[in-house]
UniProtKB/TrEMBL annotation:
SMART domains in UniProt: HTH_XRE
Coiled-coil zones: none
Domain annotation HTH cro/C1-type: ranges: 9-63
GO function term, MF aspect, one: DNA binding
Pfam families for this protein: HTH_3 (PF01381), MLTR_LBD (PF17765)
Taxonomic superkingdom: Bacteria
Protein name, per record: XRE family transcriptional regulator
Length: 257
């Protein structure tokens, strides 16, 4: 058990590019103790596992795996989203989605599959291949697919690679086979990466320039929000992605939609 936990801890520390000393300082222990835990010479306590996992920003799903590897029961429940226990969370999410109108917003799970969306986002899906909208609907696939939103994206080269790079970064940070496969699929959908940044390039903040059904060009920026204090696996893995107008013309156009 201790060797299994030690290997998993070492892998997470390597993934986060944190030294044993830095991890020890973050978790309030010693480098010697971290070294002994990784080598299997010491057995961790439950509280220490949670402190180490928090220090390495390990997702709660994988924190349960660390606890299991050390012989402890999982600490974080995984409730079904439609369960009575999560009714207040569902109500809060729907309230946020409605409150974001007239701008598009979605709630997605850890794989980027749609959990819920507001009416403004559903308007963006008009004319898309119905197959792309079938559950589980991948929002990223819908955005970049030639039978989805891609034909309406003015800066598809920049935006597509912005999306691909973000999914790749998430797959590298929190490895998951489905995310790795999705990143590869999206890279295949994307046009060649632009050799030079476009006129509207803002580094990591790549605006989505989109033509609406009236052939108006809209400029949107995105924000990502998650439950930073969630202790339920399902809640912790939800993410709200909201599209905001990047200029007054876009705000006015969406306001009239």
């Amino acid at each position: 058990m201790t060797e299994r936990f030690g290997g998993a801890l070492r892998e997470w520390r390597r993934r986060r590019r944190v030294s044993q000393l830095e991890l020890a300082v973050r978790a309030g222990t010693t480098q010697r103790h971290v070294s002994f835990l990784e080598s299997g010479r010491s057995a961790p306590g439950r509280a220490m596992i949670i402190r180490l996992a928090e220090s390495l920003e390990v997702p709660v799903r994988e924190r349960n795996d660390l606890l299991l590897a050390a012989g402890f029961a999982p600490a974080y429940p995984r409730s079904a989203l439609d369960s009575p226990e999560l009714a207040p969370v569902r109500a809060a999410l729907e309230h946020v989605l409605r409150g974001h109108l007239p701008y598009p917003a979605v709630v997605v799970d850890r794989h980027g599959d749609l959990v819920s969306a507001n009416a403004a986002f559903h308007r963006l899906t008009r004319g898309a291949d119905p197959a792309l909208l079938e559950p589980p609907m991948s929002v990223a696939r819908f955005l970049l697919h030639p039978r989805g939103l891609a034909p309406r994206i003015v800066n598809l080269g920049e935006w597509a690679w912005h999306v691909v790079d973000r999914v790749r970064a998430e797959a590298a940070r929190n490895p998951d086979e489905r995310l790795v496969a999705l990143a590869a699929e999206l890279a295949g959908l994307a046009p060649p990466r632009p050799a030079q940044p476009g006129l509207h390039h803002l580094g990591f903040a790549v605006p989505l320039r989109l033509r609406d059904t009236d052939d108006r060009e809209l400029s949107l920026i995105t924000t990502l929000t998650h439950f930073g204090t969630a202790v339920d696996v399902t809640i912790a893995e939800l993410r709200l992605e909201a599209f905001l107008p990047a200029d007054a013309a876009t705000a006015a156009a969406l306001g009239r939609s």
